[in-house]
């Protein structure tokens, strides 16, 4: 019903944002390995 559509419309973008943030942090870690020390 409406709840399912609402969950899909909110969870999917949030999941995509999390994936993008994780990939960005991974790229930053590769570019700047000294930042972890």
TrEMBL record:
Keyword field: Membrane, Transmembrane, Transmembrane helix
Superkingdom of origin: Bacteria
Transmembrane regions listed in the UniProt entry: 12-31
Protein name: C4-dicarboxylate ABC transporter permease
Organism, as annotated: Roseovarius nubinhibens
